[in-house]
Amino acid sequence: MNSKDKAIFIKNADKQLKNSCQVIIISPGKGIYDYKIKGSIDIGQVVSVPLRKNIYLGIVIAKGSNNFPQYKLKDIIEIYKLPLISMELLNFCYWLSDWYMCDISQVLKMVIPAVNFISPVKDRAILKINNKSNIATTVLGKKVLEHLKKNPSLTLSECSREVKVSYGVIKKLIFDQVLVIDSDNEIKHNKIIKENTPKLNQHQLEAIKKIKSIASKKNNNVFLLDGVTGSGKTEIYLELISDEIKRGRQSLVLLPEIALSKQFIDRFEKRFNFMPAIWHSEISNKEKRKTWQKVIKGEIKVVIGARSALFMPFSSLSLIVVDEEHDSSYKQEDGIIYNARDMAVVRGNLSNSKVILASATPSLESVHNANIGKYNRIELPERFGSAVMPRIKIIDMRKEKLSTNQWIAHESKEAIKKALNDKEQVLLYINRRGYAPLTLCRSCGYRFQCINCSSWLVNHKVINKMLCHYCGYKEDIEDECPNCKSKKEFAPCGPGVERLAAEAKELFPKARLEMIASDTLDNSSKTENIFNTIALGNVDIIVGTQLVAKGHHFPNLTTVIAIDADIGLSGGDLRASERTFQMLTQLTGRAGREKKKGYAYIQSYDPKHTVMEAMQTGSIKNFIKVEADGRKDRSLPPYGRLGSLIIQSSNLDILEQFVKNLSSKAPKIHKDKDRIDILGPAPAPIAKLRGLYRYRFLIKGKGDVRIQAFIKEWLLNIKIDKVIRIKIDIDPYNFL
Ligand code: ADP
Ligand code: ZN
Ligand code: ZN
Fold this sequence. Notes:
With 736 residues, the chain is α/β, with parallel strands linked by helices. It folds into 5 domains: 3-118, GIY-YIG endonuclease (3-Layer(aba) Sandwich), CATH 3.40.1440; 125-183; 202-380, 3-Layer(aba) Sandwich (Rossmann fold); 391-432 and 495-628, Rossmann fold (3-Layer(aba) Sandwich); 640-730, 2-Layer Sandwich (Alpha-Beta Plaits). It has 20 helices and 32 strands. Helix 16 links the parallel strand 27 (557-562) and strand 28. It is globular. Bound molecules: adenosine-5'-diphosphate and zinc ion (ZN) (2 copies). The site of one zinc ion has 8 residues, from loops. Residues 450, 452-453, 455, 468, 470-471, 473 line the site of one zinc ion.
């Protein structure tokens, strides 16, 4: 997609409005209404307006529609003193709602997540020591000064409480001008006082030169920064950010898993000597509100965030970085279904920002876009410094003779032994949480299944529960089979990360072992601690899921072993191979990142699979070509378009009836009919999820046909029962 192909919805020409205006109401499903204006008003102004008996927040988007006589219009209630929401951002929201076929009001809610975001945050009045006269005369006064030197930015009451002195003591110091009252509105994010810049190598310098020279021509600002893990991509975009800060402009860095970003933030702080603003779901609303205010005023220059940071009201955005651009967590699957990587490109175009998509294993979509010249490819050929890529060995598990309930191959065991002897770290990886993915009763064959979903329950020994990985349903592990009542007859089938950890512990009892999975790390400080401990070398064997496979830099880790590397390859997901390849490349990239040589062992039951062959030869280009040819033959993305309709209901009869009816109503005459196929309806692979039954249609378009127009026409005249929910997913990543 290309935002430049499409009409811009709002034009600068009618920016200042008189008499009447249209206001879009920020509340799902409400829509756009006309209001009267006294004087004039600007597009992008945030207002509150009456609608029926309520008052809503809204944004002025256009001049009045003139569908109503002026005297019938209501007045705007309040015009907020706030910088305008930029045309660029409004157009971005329109673009997104049009592409993903979702409600614009809901999209704008991402821009203004809560009503209180628009009212300024009150500054705290804090005590500061007056450098011109900092001599206190009394003992208590001295105590106050000592405390404030160590703890700057306290309010009067905080200081009084902490030093245990009366207000009077502090007030006297203020009266004597030893202390002054200042506001806490110190801007911490906008200036480089002192920068620790590394000396870039030739490849890095060339990359930056190329980016700058292309960007200065202003006609194609999207860059695919393609280089193996550890090749110095991050240093390149930090350099670009540095430039933008110096020009007084704003940058946004999107990271896939923000919990993993502590290392990144430390690195940022070390270089720039200030903290970037951070934005993700775990940041409190209060903190977000402060950040939001400073971003709209242009006071914050760098935001590091998860995908929702893409909706922030930047006033002078100039650079968007999407790190690990191939990561599927950029795809938002609930609420507004969108892909932040793709939308970063759109926002970049609309705001004339440079967009850097960085990855060691770029997505096929981005590679394709670079091949056809839509993106500029910037390549970094090798690891930075003396580090080299690890040696990779595929272990053929069909030839492996392991006793039952063992998963670590002989050669892997030898490798672990050797690493431990050499005082190096080992990472054992398996992409499966819990102890065993399936549990059955030995007597009657009963399988533990979720009550809400069509999925097996996964045994988690750490918390002693059976868990559904789709809906979170939990039940206790009973002694008795719910079906045949026989006791303690359960057989766990297959390995999960907990079971693998148990096996490793048994094999290497003396090694310091740490197991890491998303459900065993309940809070981020615990996560940070563990990762620090590992980085310091105080763990010998790390057993983990994909949480440890990405982004980390553990200097002493030399040996990586992937158990059941084929897990992700089964099923009908069109990106299964691509994703497995990316994951294994990320994973093996953790080994030998510094001076010591790295080794990776990949255990596979299908060693001839293209993914395994690509891992063995290390030829990313060849893999991508084979994969791309396969997709081309079948007109799959990036050579075609997909949209999926998921129809859900708690009532299976009504659902099946509806789906049948819907199927028969597909447009027979449509200008693109010949280029569009409808697959389905079929029960979804997860036929029941969270208590709802599910059917799917897959809409497949050839080339870059607009499947959205077709879907719109299809759904236009369909009566939708109250118990039916339709989810539209354009460019789907999830096929369950
Ligand atoms: P990538 O983002 O491609 O994985 P990084 O930018 O993180 O690579 O670089 C890998 C390692 O090399 C990091 O530890 C980084 O600090 C270091 N590094 C990269 N470029 C330089 C440089 N020019 N000078 C010093 N160290 C560098
Ligand atoms: Zn469930
Ligand atoms: Zn039983």
